[in-house]
Amino acid sequence: MDFTIQTPKSDQRVPANIAHALGLGLPEIDTSERSLHIVANGPTAREFFRHRFFGDTMALNGALGVFVDHGRAPTYWAGCDSQEELAGFLKEAPPTTTYLVASRCHPAVFDRLRNHDVRLWHVSDYPAAGKRRVPCAVSITLCAAMLAQRLGYRRLDMWGWDCCFSGSSLEDVGEHHAGQGELSATPEPIEIEIDDEPERYISTSTWMCEISDAQGILPVLRWCGTDVVIHGRSLISAIIPEFGEQELNRKAA
Fold this sequence. Notes:
The protein is an alpha/beta fold. It has a single domain (33-163, 206-252), classed as Rossmann fold. It is built from seven helices and nine strands; from the N terminus they run αββαββαβαβββαβαα. It has helices at residues 13-22, 64-69, 107-112, 140-150, 205-223, 235-239, 245-252; strands at 35-39, 56-60, 76-79, 98-102, 117-121, 155-159, 190-192, 201-203, 227-230. It has a seven-stranded parallel sheet, with helices on one face. Strands 7-8 form a two-stranded antiparallel sheet. α3 links the parallel β4 and β5. The longest helix has 19 residues, at 205-223. It is globular, with a radius of gyration of 20 Å.
């Protein structure tokens, strides 16, 4: 059975209605322009501190070490991994940061943050009776983006979200984290070629799954009214260029 949707409008009528409504000077219900800089732990995370930035910041996992190395404290730190190793990223946890800790995290994380400002959140892969949950994704970066949208942020500037090593060949793999180490062993590196790009990227199967997840999640965030901008040289912005800084700047020009 086929259904046809028909609405009582024309291509000319709706723009005219919008122009009329805007001309009335009425107050808007959504004027939020809150922005958040989310700093993941990829090699390019260090580039964040080479730019002038304003607004709130959120460090993910070991990216907290990048802030500490620069004598800075992020507005938030966020983590959702269940491994006890996550607590190792919090050895020098700044006292002024608000720590957004998922309920699925190991007790050692909460012990390490006993004297800090900790706020609890929940991920949808496990039940939390009577609690609102953030949709589950394959990485803290994607979960944090959806958490930020829940917190009311309408622009997310992503730094250090690379999904690739710093090198450009299997013989020169390079770094994979800017700050403190990782939660688990890094899978075997793989070489990725992008159409019309001379440079190759070195990634892993895990990071490619993350990019695949992002291809579904980022358009939904945009549809919900939250803009996402991925900064720096990264495999993810090469595969999803419509969210990359260079592509967005080109369209704006």
